UniProtKB/TrEMBL annotation, chains A, B:
Entry membrane topology: Multi-pass membrane protein
Biological source species: Methylopila turkensis
GO CC annotation terms, alphabetical: plasma membrane
Designated name of the protein: Magnesium transporter MgtE
Cytoplasm among keywords: no
Gene Ontology molecular function: magnesium ion transmembrane transporter activity; metal ion binding
Subunit comment: Homodimer.
Classification via SMART domains: CBS, MgtE_N
Record family assignment: Belongs to the SLC41A transporter family.
Function statement: Acts as a magnesium transporter.
Amino acid sequence: MTADAETRAGTPGPDVVDAIRDEDGRLRSSFVEAVVAAIAANDGPRVCELAGDLHESDVGDLIETLEPDDRPKLIELLGKEFDFTALTEVDETVRVRLLEELPPETVAEGVRDIDSDDAVYILEDLDEVDRARILDQLPGPERVALTRSLDFPEESAGRRMQNEFVATPPFWTVGHVIDHIADTPGLPETFYEVFVVDPAHKLLGSVPLDRLLRTRRSVLMQDILEEDPRTVRATDDQEAAARLFERYNLVSAAVVDDADRLVGVLMVDDILDVIEQEADEDLRALGGVTGDEEISDTVLYTARSRIPWLLVNLCTAFFSASVIGLFEAPIEQMVALAVLMPIVASMGGNAGTQTMTVAVRALATRDLGGHNARRLIGRETLVGLANGVALAALVGLAAGAWFVNPQLGVIIGAAMVVNFVCAGLFGILIPIGLDKLKADPAVASGVFVTTITDVVGFFSFLGLASWWFGLSLR
Amino acid sequence: MTADAETRAGTPGPDVVDAIRDEDGRLRSSFVEAVVAAIAANDGPRVCELAGDLHESDVGDLIETLEPDDRPKLIELLGKEFDFTALTEVDETVRVRLLEELPPETVAEGVRDIDSDDAVYILEDLDEVDRARILDQLPGPERVALTRSLDFPEESAGRRMQNEFVATPPFWTVGHVIDHIADTPGLPETFYEVFVVDPAHKLLGSVPLDRLLRTRRSVLMQDILEEDPRTVRATDDQEAAARLFERYNLVSAAVVDDADRLVGVLMVDDILDVIEQEADEDLRALGGVTGDEEISDTVLYTARSRIPWLLVNLCTAFFSASVIGLFEAPIEQMVALAVLMPIVASMGGNAGTQTMTVAVRALATRDLGGHNARRLIGRETLVGLANGVALAALVGLAAGAWFVNPQLGVIIGAAMVVNFVCAGLFGILIPIGLDKLKADPAVASGVFVTTITDVVGFFSFLGLASWWFGLSLR
């Protein structure tokens, strides 16, 4: 019993987490309140005691949880104990605002101590002026390195890469390298492979640390190096790099410039963020939330950022309405059509959205491409037909019974089949088309698909009904 | 020039990829066709030449691209050159069907040579019988290890963990450990940290390889070990493990049993898959694609798997229709209402979906929790109000002009404001509520939100109009 109790205390892993986080992984309000109280009391020692030894991610979450005014106070009270890496873990809005409130010296001081990729991540969102003010505070070498990374395009591998890495000439022995690592201060905080470069700093290969350790000390690096390591160009898009990491299960990858000189290294933890971000963008885009809206944004900013999308839908909504407008007379003669028409449209919309979701995701993960596009277009159209027929039967029966009009049931059923086939066909054709046009399928597919299913739904149902029941159009 | 040309040839990284993949990272059809031809010609050497040295992920993609009948042929023709790890890279449907077609001896032979976590990944989807038939072919130790992993619940850390790891006693010196690693054959293929355990195999700590290399040979492991490594319990859910990796930027983590004994190690590349999968599930769920549908599924399977969701929407669609049914008489008297009502409903639906998307994602990433829920509910409601007013003005003007009836414009505008406020409020309340009820907000939120915006949209618009224009309800 006691032994077991000790055992538990022995592995702080999950338990430490539990101290500040609940089982869902959220920060405990009790903990947050304690920090808020300490900040209010301006009690530095207490704040350090509470948050000083926390992992940067926990500090980051803590900052986001605090009221905006308390955030800079927390950092001041933590003083030297505050690790600026924590700022890479908070929303951009929070970060930018916080950095503007802190004195540039403090930021420069903090940025100096952290890995270059984190420093870049923190500085890149600032406007030119603020950024310059901070960079000016940095000593030459650091400033040059950071400026070089910042010169690479946004969302490029060059922005995400770390400038610190371990590189050796090919003629060194494993033993020499191991001793070198043991004797050299100021090596990167973490690294998983040693790069082998020629005098021109051109990348010859890499040696994972486990392989280094498995090899006798007398062996030369050039004899054990991985000859074709997966490399990323500094100008490559970060998403391309992420896919490389995913596909080949990498933990780090060399970043080379256009002359194939080794300029940095990408780490998997940064790639994790990229992947999260990428999936996030797709998901929000499909939900009609474009732009970089964040949970910490204000009402006004959020409202404004969502308007464009709503305006697009406004136009498509009026377009669909105008289709209904063509059938005002028939609706007057048979008002049941007005009651039933939304069913055809919305069911088609749902079917189309299903197809579109699968297509958009498959395009994003590169599972859908030239070789299987034809097959999938066929599959989705047939799926639409199959489900269209199945649901048409149900809707037809229900509608026919509701309005005691079997023929009306047949008509709505027919319209549903037509709409479902269109839903399947365009649900996949539109994302593929947008992708071919180098547009992001996730962003625009939704409007097109639902507009088509609305228009086809209303038109086929009202049109068929008018024709079948001989309703005059004026 | 030539020098530069040589340089390029010197870094095969991207170039090797280019040989079989296009710039989008898709397999080149020229390459696929060559393989198909070789398979058709039953030309083993040619197949090996083409696909023998490929990375498992490339082989995996190749398998998926091939026609079902060619897949087992490819594996047979590759023979010893086929790395079964490739099967971890293909869809479940493809994998299961393929494994059923291959002789159990071949599969047993194959899973024997690969890491245990990959072996488990390959075997877990098979039904009891097939699995047993393969396990029986394995030598005792492997069989026991795999069976133990397979005994952990699905999607648990125990299923994803690797049984191979390097562990040392605390009193070993760094030098001793380094020599041990160099001298011991059959260590795990890749590892990033050395675990330190007591005689009872209880985890005392871990030493990252870079730290091992940075330390003098004479130092004892117990003096450099990370005292509280982030550990995962074998029974923990894989998503909880993934969040731990993300939060604390881990590349590997010790997996312990309930007695805190070290039983395995989780690797970041498996976590990458989990994260992808998790994001995927949210995205599909929001799109109404539940279940484990895959791009390689048949028409029938796909159609069936999508029906349940469409049936739910069928009911909600009829429910909304019944609301319209209440206003048959007013619509007959003023048919413009039928033309305009879908605008109110669909615009509200879009606004609600925007809010819901943000909420669902924030819940999934644990950014939305007790501490900020109230603030966000307030924000979303106000965003709804703000955008409702803005768009109400536009829609009101347009509708009023269209039907030369300013009053109708005012009515539709009022209805839109009402619907947008509801959209914002319920767009966030529903996901939070479902989350509190331990239901997956991503799966069910959509129906509820759009149903509410449809019903509120139709009811407020038709109701207000009937009242204002004094239209009789029968």
